[in-house]
Design a protein that fits this description.
This protein has about 280 residues and is α/β, with parallel strands linked by helices. The chain is built from twelve helices and eleven strands. It starts with a strand and ends in a 9-residue tail after the last helix. GO terms for molecular function: glycosyltransferase activity.
Length: about 280
């Protein structure tokens, strides 16, 4: 079966080259790589164009900046594969990642899969470690060990099923990749051993930007009760003491800087959700 790997890109000059190099080394060879530039203003497009000289099965598409959901949909509309694989520019992969990810689909056991074998790529960076500590309480893996064997986000899916769902909803921001599961009323099943690595924000401005995006998602701002709850949860007044506590608990002294910044960014997005704001980065 032919595979189409789809990557939305928006100002990813630091990471897109490594991502593409990693995909070029996949042991599963019947695949195409489709990169969709979502209106980048940095050197992302130049790096992708240069990669095309070395990667024969690489296609670059361009659109104005409207978000990753729309970018993925554009990529899927041009895909020639029987199975779509959705990844991000800040990921890198073991050589057998694609083969193991699609194995349950090829065997007819599932319409789509995800992987629990997701690990932190840049744990040598203090802010990347702090991000993982905030989200998962440790610095190695990025999926909880007790996570169930089904998930609402498809990392791979039959193109026919993706088309049946009419793609991702494009106006929900951070959780756009949940929308296919909702429309199909089914979840992805785990693909054992599909190991990959994900990069966390590495600078305080990147932490602020990513946390602002997270703060826009519907699970934090979907209704008035959620908004009020998360205004209390991420109140900067409490973040300083929580940051000091986390620094001691995790033995990561810079967590006391990270935590107030992270919470302030989420708090800002939740506050602005009472007004009109774009849900894109």
């Amino acid at each position: 079966m032919k595979i189409s790997v789809i990557i939305p890109v928006y100002n990813e000059e630091k990471v897109i080259g490594s991502c593409l190099e990693s995909l070029a080394k996949q042991t599963y060879k019947d695949l195409e790589i489709i990169v969709i530039d979502d209106g980048s203003t940095d050197k992302s497009v130049a790096i992708i164009e240069n990669s095309k000289l070395k990667i024969a099965n690489l296609l670059l598409l361009k659109q104005k900046h409207v978000g990753p959901g729309a970018a993925r949909n554009l990529g899927a509309s041009k895909a020639k594969g029987d199975i779509l694989v959705f990844v991000d520019a800040d990921m890198e992969f073991e050589p057998d990642f694609v083969g193991k990810l699609i194995a349950p689909i090829v065997a007819g056991k599932s319409i789509g899969t995800f992987s629990k074998d997701e690990y932190l790529l840049n744990k040598n960076n203090v802010w990347a470690r702090c991000w993982n500590l905030e989200r998962f309480g440790q610095v190695d893996w990025m999926v909880p060990r007790n996570y169930p064997n089904t998930a609402p986000v498809f990392r791979a899916i039959l193109k026919s099923k993706f088309d049946e769902a009419r793609g991702f909803d494009q106006d929900v921001g951070y959780t756009d990749d949940w929308s296919v599961s909702r429309k199909l009323k089914t979840q992805a099943t785990v693909a054992p051993g599909a190991k990959f690595y994900h990069r966390n924000p590495e600078t305080l401005p990147e932490v602020w930007k990513q946390a602002r995006w997270i703060g826009k998602n519907e699970f934090l701002t979907g209704n008035l009760i959620r908004k009020l709850y998360n205004l209390a949860k991420y109140n900067p007044f409490f973040a300083i003491s929580l940051g000091v506590y986390g620094s001691i608990k995790y033995r990561e002294r810079n967590f006391f800087i990270f935590k107030p910044l992270y919470d302030a960014a989420v708090f800002t997005s939740v506050t602005l959700s009472f007004l009109s704001q774009s849900k894109n980065k």
